[in-house]
Specification:
The structure holds two protein chains of two kinds.
Chain A (H helix, E strand, L loop, with lengths): L17 E3 L4 H9 L3 E3 L5 H8 L4 E4 L9 E3 L3 E5 L4 H6 L1 H6 L1 H8 L4 H6 L2 H7 L7 H6 L3 E5 L5 E5 H4 E3 L2 E2 L6 E8 L5 E8 L10 E9 L6 E9 L6 E2 L1 H5 L8 H14 L10 H23 L3 H5 L2
Helix pairs in contact in A: 11-12
Chain B lengths: L3 E4 L2 E4 L2 H4 L3 H8 L18 E4 L2 E4 L12 E3 L6 H14 L8 H12 L10 H4 L11 H10 L1
Parallel strand pairs in B: 1-5
Antiparallel strand pairs in B: 1-2, 3-4, 3-5
Helix pairs in contact in B: 3-6
Bound molecules: flavin-adenine dinucleotide and FE2/S2 (inorganic) cluster (2 copies).
Chain lengths: 307, 149
C-alpha cells in the first residue's frame, strides 16, 4: 500500500510573517501609518495569525524603552504599552494602588501567558470578557494615544472600546500606555470572574467594584461598578453603584445593589451559558466584589457593621 | 535585521527565514531541539514551554525575531542532575504516561525548583495552570513536583 499522504500544514502553523523591530516611537508610528499591525506580547495576535494567516506584517513594540515604563506615584499609575501582566501581578506597589487590576491580571491565561501578554494588548483586543477591562473602568483608566502626526490624546476606557474587537483607535495611531487613578483613603477595589474551568478559560461573567467610605468608616462616599462578558462591551452599572452612596453598606442594601446590576446587564445566551445564568452570576459576583472592595477599604468592615 | 539567541548556553544566529516564524519552529526545525513539543499551537497546553531569561513562556506564541540577545532554555538544556531528580520523582509518583506534556512540565519544574513564583505562597496547582496533561489526571504530577521542591 502506498504510504498515506503527509497531512498539509496544520491550520495552526504560523506562516512566516514580515517582522519589524522599530528602535523608537517615531519608527513605530511610521510603520503604523503604513498599515503594519502592532505586535505586543502576541498572545492574541500570533494565535490569530496562525489560525487565519492574517495579519502578515507586524511591528514589535517591545524594543521601545519608553513603552516599558511602569510608573507609580502616590495617587496614579502609568502602565506603558509593553508592560506585561506578570510585571503588574508581581508589583506590590501596584497592588496597593489598584488591587482590582491585579485581581484581573492574575487570572489571565497562565504563568506562561502572563509573562508575555501586556495589559494594553488586553484592552486593545477589546473582548467583552477581557479580564483587566472592568477593573480599569472602576479605576477611571484612560488610554494614552499618539497619532502618526505626533498628536497626543487621552481617551477614557469606556469611550475607547466600541464593541467586540472594536476600539476607537484610528489607522496610524498607537496606544503608548494606560493611566489610572489609584486608591485614596478608605477606598478599596476588587474584581472577580466566573469560568467553567478554573484556568485558561474566558469569563462567563465578571464584575469589578471600587468604593470609598466617609471618615465615619461606615457611609459609602463613592462607588463604581463595572461588568464584563454580559454585553457587547464592558458595562458600567451606574444606577447600582449610586444606590450604595450616602448609606452604610448593610446586607439589604448590598442585595438590592446586586439586583440592580443583574437588571441592567445585557447578557446573551451562547454555547457557554444562558443569559439568565449570566444574570444570576452578575448578582452573586456583585455581592462578592463589593464585599471584597469594602474589606480592602476598611479591613474588618463587616465587624464594624455588626449590630 | 540580525537576531542572535543563546539557546541552552550556545550562541546561535537566526537565519533570516526564521525571524518571522515562531520560536517553536526555530527550535525544532532548525536546531533539532525536538524535546520542545507542539500540542495546540495556541497557548493553551504548555507542551511548548521554554524559559526565556529564566521565565516560562509558550514558544508557540513567540516570534523568534523579538528575542534578540535573549537566553532560551529548553528541556535539552536543563542540568543533568536536575533531570535525574526529575525523572526519579516522575517514576516514583507515576507522573508520566504518554509523555507528551512532560518536557513542558520538566521546564516548569526546573523553574519552580529555582524559586520561580509570581507572588508568595502560590500553590503548585496555580503555577501549573498552563500545562495540560491528558493522561495522568495531574495529581501524580503535583506530587512529583512537590517532592522535588
Ligand atoms: C491560552 C490563552 C488564554 C487566555 N486567557 C485569557 C483570560 O483568561 N482572560 C483574558 O482577558 N484574556 C485571555 N487571553 C487573551 C490575552 O492573553 C490577551 O488579550 C493579551 O492580554 C493581549 O496582550 P498581548 O500583549 O499578547 O497583545 P497582542 O496579541 O500582541 O495584541 C493584541 C491586539 O492589541 C493590539 N495592540 C497591542 N498593543 C498595542 C498598542 N500599543 N497600540 C495599539 N494596538 C495595540 C494588537 O495590534 C492586536 O490587535 C488568553 C489568551 C490565550 C492564548
Ligand atoms: S503548543 Fe504552545 S501552548 Fe500548546
Ligand atoms: S502524560 Fe500524556 S499528556 Fe501528560
Amino acid at each position: 500500500m502506498p504510504p498515506a499522504k503527509s497531512p498539509a500544514l496544520r491550520p495552526s502553523h504560523l506562516p512566516p510573517v514580515e517582522l519589524y523591530r522599530p528602535a523608537d516611537l517615531g519608527e513605530l508610528l511610521a510603520h503604523a501609518a503604513d498599515g503594519v499591525h502592532l505586535l505586543a506580547g502576541g498572545t492574541d495576535l500570533v494565535v490569530w495569525a496562525s489560525q487565519c494567516g492574517e495579519p502578515r506584517r507586524l511591528a514589535w513594540i517591545g524594543s521601545i524603552d519608553q513603552l516599558q515604563t511602569l510608573d507609580i506615584t502616590s495617587d496614579r499609575a502609568h502602565i506603558g504599552a509593553a508592560v506585561t501582566l506578570s510585571r503588574i501581578v508581581r508589583s506590590g506597589q501596584f497592588r496597593s494602588l489598584a488591587p482590582a487590576v491585579v485581581d484581573g491580571a492574575a487570572v489571565v491565561g497562565s504563568v506562561q501567558l502572563r509573562n508575555q501578554a501586556t495589559l494594553v494588548g488586553n484592552v486593545c483586543t477589546a473582548s467583552p470578557g477581557g479580564d483587566t477591562i472592568p477593573a480599569l473602568h472602576v479605576h477611571d483608566a484612560a488610554l494614552d494615544i499618539v497619532s502618526a502626526a505626533g498628536d497626543r490624546r487621552s481617551v477614557k476606557i469606556s469611550d475607547f472600546v466600541h464593541g467586540p474587537g472594536q476600539t476607537g483607535l484610528n489607522t496610524g495611531e498607537v496606544v503608548t500606555g494606560v493611566t489610572l487613578r489609584g486608591l485614596g483613603q478608605r477606598e478599596g477595589s476588587a474584581f472577580s470572574r466566573f469560568t467553567q474551568r478554573n484556568a485558561l478559560d474566558l469569563a462567563i461573567a465578571s464584575v469589578a467594584a471600587c468604593l470609598s467610605f466617609e471618615s465615619d468608616g461606615r457611609t459609602v462616599a463613592r462607588a463604581h461598578l463595572s461588568m464584563g462578558a454580559v454585553g457587547p462591551t464592558v458595562l458600567d452599572a451606574d444606577e447600582a453603584a449610586r444606590s450604595l452612596v450616602g448609606h452604610p453598606l448593610e446586607p439589604a442594601r448590598l442585595r438590592n445593589c446586586a439586583d440592580l446590576t443583574a437588571e441592567c446587564c445585557r447578557p446573551i445566551t451562547d454555547h457557554r451559558a444562558s443569559a439568565d445564568y449570566r444574570r444570576q452570576l452578575v448578582r452573586t459576583l456583585t455581592m462578592d466584589v463589593v464585599d471584597a472592595a469594602a474589606e480592602r477599604a476598611i479591613p474588618g468592615w463587616l465587624a464594624v457593621e455588626a449590630p | 535585521m540580525q537576531v542572535t539567541l543563546r539557546v541552552n548556553g550556545k550562541l546561535s544566529e537566526v537565519p533570516p527565514s526564521f525571524i518571522g516564524r515562531r520560536l517553536l519552529d526555530y527550535l525544532r526545525a532548525e536546531l533539532g531541539l525536538t524535546g520542545v513539543k507542539e500540542g495546540c499551537g495556541e497557548g493553551d497546553c504548555g507542551a511548548c514551554t521554554v524559559l526565556v531569561e529564566g521565565q516560562p513562556m509558550c514558544s508557540c506564541l513567540l516570534l523568534t525575531g523579538v528575542l534578540d540577545g535573549r537566553e532560551i532554555t529548553t528541556i535539552e538544556g536543563l542540568p543533568e542532575t536536575f533531570l535525574a531528580q526529575f525523572s526519579a520523582a516522575c517514576a516514583e509518583y507515576g507522573a508520566v504516561q504518554c509523555g507528551y506534556c512532560t518536557p513542558g512540565i520538566a521546564v516548569m519544574a526546573a523553574w519552580l525548583q529555582a524559586g520561580g513564583s509570581e507572588v508568595s505562597a502560590q500553590p503548585i496547582t496555580k503555577l501549573l495552570e498552563g500545562n495540560l496533561c491528558r493522561c495522568t489526571g495531574y495529581q501524580q504530577i503535583i506530587e512529583a513536583l512537590s517532592a522535588l521542591q
